[in-house]
Amino acid sequence: MTFSYDRSTADTIYEGLRDIPKNSKGRRYAVRVQVPSRTIILAAHFAQLSGVVELVEAWMADTYPSYQTPRGRPPLIPVKAYVVATLASGIALGNTSYISIHSVLTGEWTRAERAAMGFAVSANDDEDALLDAKRRSIGYDCVTRLAAKVALTFDPKPYPSRSGLTIEQLDAIDATRDPKVMALHQARADMLAGRLMTACFKLLPEEIQCRWHGDLTGDGTLVKGYGGWGHNSGVRKVKESQSPEANAGIHARTQDRRDAAAFDTGQIKPDKTIYNFGYEGHALLMTAPEGALPVPCLVIGWSLDRPSVGPGQNLVTAVQGIVEANLPSGRLVTDMGYSQRFPVNFHLPFAQLGYTQVMMYADADLGVQATYAGFLMVEGTWYGPCIPQMLIDATKDFRAGRITEDVFRDRIAARVKYQARIKRRRKDGWLVDYRCPGRGDGATNDCPIVRDRMGDKAPAYTVNPEGRRTLNMVFAAQVPADPPTCCTNAESVTIPVDVGIKFAQEFPYESEEWRAWYPRERNSMEGKNRYLKDAAAAAIANVDHRRFRGYGKQHFALLAKLVGANFQTILAFVDAEEDREKNPPAAKIGRPKKVGWDNLPPGSTGPPEPMRIAGRQSTSEKVA
């Protein structure tokens, strides 16, 4: 079957393309998808709410002294216009490349929209037409030059982006850097992320904000870099040269069960690690406990760095914007990519800010993880020394296949009888008094040591209607021959929070409470990562939307896309709230705790400087 095209229709389209006006440089305006007018206004208001325009303008004045007192011609593109155009591209879930930003800056906008972007306007129609024509004639190179200048104000380690250098050449550049300048620029990049992410939270009505008690889920996600090894030909003049995107790195993902379906045998084949080149983004996602009033799952914290470099420090960095906004702290759910870090880089800083952990453990970390005055920390929770060995080894035995799941669940539930009880927290929570499970009100054990020492004052058991004792019977063989301090102290034992802090968590591991939190929150994070990388949504993984190199440029473009993803999340949440039937008020989950670097153990101070400098590590630097 043949099809004949209508020549007159084709001529009409061709003439329409030729009728597109040219700018002063003889170039026709591109035919592109335009950002909606309302998005420009929203982006301008959001830039004002977050205060990022004032920040960037101050950084420009500090980095380029001539910016504050310009000489010669005024800049064609105000910094505000560039910031608003980038945010508008992200909010519209569009392309954040310079081509797209240039299209936004030179688009057809009303006088009010141009004023909102920061361009000069005039009440006189003729003068305003001249100003608008000047704006429409802005060249692509003007956008790239301004973007490079803005990025340099918060890029801690800029490198030449047009050629691959050797490791020796990169080290030579690093040797000339001022550590104070690097720390300043890193702090600026982190502040920019904090301002933009927490401003998304401030968009919510106060009644929605009050629902959130500070609970977070953290995870890292690969963000591929543009042009991993330079020119697409793959031919390098210097074989030892590195990627022009020097701050990015190799991301290795070991094959897991999800990849097994790709093989005919259905078995995981050895040495099938997947490698990619780019950055790693560390995101903090808002969450709420099951049964509570829902909150939108916003990305409220963000940090960008080289893959596998300082993940714990990067997640601490991501939470700093939440701290500065004086938002509440709650539970933090992470995978073993973070919980396996050194405590000084992850667990201690989050504990200082009032967060409690919910985590998993590797096989090597199961069982007893710490001891103090006779108490045993078993998989994140303190227990008395009378806890039977089979309960200590419950998770080990289950993972090894020695017991069934039903037996495993019964043993996990039986642990609670031996759990040490918190009597009080002292010194801002950094010293906690724990009571033996056989002492005081609420005792769960009938312990022979307690009976011998307290006599008639020892907790007495009763028999319930089912004929069972209300106190668990502890036999003499279960208690130590030489009773430790936790058994002999009449009241309690004080344990510093930093003892076993790498493994301590809010709920007993694999308990009903733990299983109500961890799988649900991890699934929420994985779903959010899928949405962020969806080509039809935020598309943060689409390298063609970020066709430039450099940490600062990538960082700002990704932040704009995350703002757009948060806007869409808020819209979906508003629609769901309108459709949802009225729910009874959620049970109160305690008073939200305020976070702050002043909540520290005695003698400690908050980090005055960034915990890490993102990007490439020179051969003389030690990776923490």
Instruction: Report how far the terminal alpha carbons are from each other.
Output: 68 Å
Structural class: alpha+beta
What is the tally of helical segments? 22
Spans where pLDDT lies below 50 across 5 or more residues: 230-238, 257-268, 600-607
Percent of residues in helices comes to: 25-40%
Overall mean pLDDT stands at: 83
What is the beta-strand fraction?
5-15%
Outline, from the CA principal axes? Answer: elongated
What's the Cα radius of gyration? 30 Å
The counted number of beta strands is 16
Largest sheet properties = 6 strands, mixed
Give a summary of the structure in a few sentences.
Helix content is about 40%, strand content about 10%. The chain has about 625 residues and is of the alpha+beta class. Helix 5 (about 80-90) crosses helix 22 (about 550-580) and helix 9 (about 140-150) crosses helix 22.
Structural commentary:
The chain is α+β, with helices and mostly antiparallel strands and 624 residues long. It has helices at residues 7-18, 37-50, 52-63, 65-68, 79-91, 98-105, 111-117, 125-136, 140-152, 167-175, 179-202, 206-209, 311-324, 336-339, 347-352, 389-392, 394-399, 405-414, 448-454, 485-488, 512-533, 551-579; strands at residues 216-224, 249-253, 274-286, 299-305, 328-329, 331-333, 356-358, 368-372, 375-378, 381-383, 421-426, 431-435, 445-446, 472-473, 493-496, 593-594. Strands 1, 2, 3, 4, 6 and 7 form a six-stranded mixed beta sheet that branches. A three-stranded antiparallel beta sheet has the order 8-9-10, with no helix packed on it. A hairpin with a 4-residue loop joins strand 11 and strand 12. Helix 5 (79-91) crosses helix 22 (551-579), helix 9 (140-152) packs across helix 22 (551-579) and helix 11 crosses helix 13 (311-324). The termini are far apart.
